[in-house]
Automatic annotation (TrEMBL):
The organism's place on the tree of life at top rank: Bacteria
Role: Converts the preformed base xanthine, a product of nucleic acid breakdown, to xanthosine 5'-monophosphate (XMP), so it can be reused for RNA or DNA synthesis.
Oligomer status and interactors: Homodimer.
EC number in record: 2.4.2.22
Metabolic or biological pathway, per its Swiss-Prot or TrEMBL entry: Purine metabolism; XMP biosynthesis via salvage pathway; XMP from xanthine: step 1/1
Chief place where the protein resides: cytoplasm
Name of this chain's protein: Xanthine phosphoribosyltransferase
Catalytic activity field: XMP + diphosphate = xanthine + 5-phospho-alpha-D-ribose 1-diphosphate
Keywords: Cytoplasm, Glycosyltransferase, Purine salvage, Transferase
Length: 190
């Protein structure tokens, strides 16, 4: 998505050779108009599938999923929680996910009542680095005996291997911008 690449160049910041900060429009402050374009682009790329649920991880993926849902005729957006809130008293599906940027390991959870056997699920997230969060979400879908229809990432850091890992596992992956490298503060797109 050329508009996304240009926005990353204009507004993003690099940290070392592995981190791109896009918190000014994607994951701290949301550019709602631009996020609408991202939702439309995900629909265009997944125009051949039907979706019963959109799954993401709190918190950065929620805005993306919510802005994408109208383009799929408003399926529910389900987001995996990184901690167990005291209000989650029911049984849940759980899977381990490592965070590249935070350097932590979490068990992401979805209450069983929100993912059902046979659901057709689209997984969306802001970043795809090593693929840990996406793989954990596919595990939640598997536990529910539902079906992963596709995985969408706004930004894939191709040099960190997560995209290849998902493709090798047989998942359909659509990344709106793929960063090939970050060198001396300069981003190279695939």
């Amino acid at each position: 998505m050329e508009a996304l690449k240009q926005k990353i160049i204009r507004e993003g910041q690099t940290v070392g050779t592995g981190i791109v900060k896009v918190d000014g429009f994607l994951n701290h402050q949301i550019d709602v108009k631009f996020m609408n374009e991202i939702g439309r682009e995900f629909r265009r790329r997944f125009s051949d599938i039907e979706v019963d649920k959109i799954l993401t991880v709190e918190a950065s993926g929620i805005g993306i999923a919510c802005m994408t849902a109208p383009y799929f005729d408003y399926p529910p957006v389900v987001f995996a929680k990184k901690t167990t809130p005291s209000t989650m008293t029911e049984e849940f599906f759980g899977a381990e996910a490592k965070s590249f940027t935070k350097g932590t390991v979490s068990i992401i959870r979805v209450a069983r009542k929100y993912l059902s056997k046979g659901d057709r699920v689209l997984i969306l997230d802001d970043f795809l680095a090593h693929g840990e969060a996406a793989m954990a979400m596919t595990e939640l879908v598997k536990q529910a005996e539902a079906q992963v229809m596709g995985i969408g990432a706004v930004i894939e850091k191709g040099f960190q291997g997560g995209g290849q890992k998902l493709r090798d596992a047989g998942f359909r992956l659509e990344s709106l911008a793929v960063i090939e490298a970050i060198n001396d503060g300069e981003i190279t797109f695939a």
